Amino acid sequence: MKGRINSRKYRRKYQVKRFTRSNYRTRGSTKLTIFISLAVVIFVVCVVYLVLPPLLLSKYGIVFVPPYVKEQTPTPTITPTPTPNPYENIDFSELQQEVAVAASQYSWYGDPYFYGDTLMFTAGELVSGSARMTTLFKYDTQTNRAQRQNVMLKHDHFLYPVFNDEFVVYLDAKHDGGGEIIAHRFDDNYQKPILIKTVYTGQPALFLEGNYLVWIERTGTNMDKLFVCDLKTQETVAVQMFERGSYYGTSKPYIKNGLIIWADADEEKATGAITSQICVMNIQSGDMTSYKPQTYVHDPKTNGNGIFAWLDGNHGPDTKLYIMKNGDEPQVIAEGAVDFFMDDDFITYQKHESIFAYLISTGETVELTKKTQYAQLAGASSGYVAWFDVTRRDVDILKYAKIPK
Q1: DSSP secondary-structure letter at 50?
Q2: Rounded to 5 degrees, what are φ and ψ at 395?
């Protein structure tokens, strides 16, 4: 029949292969084999890359880095660099230099004052059998040359000369006290003296910064006043009056970085010992600040950067020298200090006829004179300390040292 399909041909042409039990078992075992192989490979990789490195590291100290891990540069451990000590390995007693003056008639020297690398001081000679400081010298510490200044003396002594680039000021003093505070501009070659003020009693020390001059002077019988003079305008103002009989009229003022400082009585009544306050006035604004360290204060000074120093007595053998930083608790840095001066980086003082310097940045105390020397402290400014070598009592020997920064 034409409609009948030839089943044999159809089966041969269109037959789909059937899965028999035998075929199923063969394909199933192949999948299992592949799965087991993958598991073994994964296990080996884990052992090689994850387990083996720690074992090797712990047993042999071997560091194993897998190839797929990008090697990183180790971060170095930063060790803080210690702040260098600028004073290390310095023998301060070897820094001293002697001032040499060729003029042999001068047997005495006094009141050394440094500005920059130049020193100004007074020189004395016998006049009618009396020792008088009749001459001003400038001394260049770089060339070791002294030059006599062509300035005329009206009375008996040059005392407390101070100077800067524009002005030189001194007390033209009478032998028995009083005199005149005189200023010169350096460009007038000492030919046009400026009378700042007539002094009727005592011999006040002078302090200069820029065009401002500061001193304490006794006026009348017992009244002391703190004066400030603007040398450019020649205007003088009394900024403080001290009570009659007060200790503080004999305490020296100071000026640094536009700040005038002085000592006065503590307004708060303290029990026991006398206590004082350190008064600070900004010369430009007139603003006042006071510090009450709960000690007696004499001759306070500042480096202009928040650090103050003072004595707790009037230069006696039991006097203590204090320092106070940024209003913190005061600390004693020396006992038996009969006098002291302060500069930007150090405080220098005299004790037992030796000269010492307290280095503010490190807190160290160093000796500027040798053990075999006897010395009297004379001044400090512009990084220099000056003193008189009094090992020999028959002649004045002026010495100085520059403190390294």
Answers
A1: I
A2: -155, 145
What's phi and psi for 213, nearest 5 deg?
-115, 135
Residue with tokens 């005592």: 202
Name the residue type at position 4.
Answer: R
Q: What is the pLDDT of residue 15?
A: 46
pLDDT > 80? residue 80: no
Closest residue by Cα to residue 200 from 174, 235, 162: 174
Contacts of 108 by beta carbon, 8 Å cutoff, 6+ apart: 123, 124, 125, 131, 133, 396
Query: CB-based contacts of 58: which residues, under 8 Å, 6+ apart?
Result: none
Strand partners, 123: 109, 135
Is pTM beyond 0.85? Reply is: no
The half-sphere exposure of 50 on its side-chain side, counting CA atoms within 13 A, is: 6
The pLDDT value recorded for residue 53 is 57
Instruction: For residue 55, give the 3-state DSSP assignment.
Output: helix
C-alpha closest to that of 180 among 188, 170, 189, 190:
170
Other C-beta atoms closer than 10 Å to the C-beta of 373 total 19
pLDDT tens per residue across span 262-302: 999 987 665 667 899 999 999 999 999 999 999 999 999 99
Number of Cβ within 10 Å of residue 403's Cβ equals: 22
With b for 16 or more beta-carbon neighbours within 10 A and e for fewer, the 196-230 pattern comes to bbebeebebbbbbbeebbbbbbbbeeeebbbbbbe
**DSSP-assigned letters across all residues of 356-382:** EEEETTTTEEEE-S-TT--EEEEEEET
Query: How far is 247 from 264, CA to CA, in rounded Å?
Result: 8
Report the C-alpha gap between 183 and 219 in whole angstroms.
Answer: 21
Residue 271 CA neighbour count, 13 Å, CB half? 0
Provide the token pair at 50. Answer: 């994850």
Q: What share of the chain is helix, strand, coil (3-state, %, to 5)?
A: 15, 40, 45
258 φ, ψ (degrees, to nearest 5): 75, 10
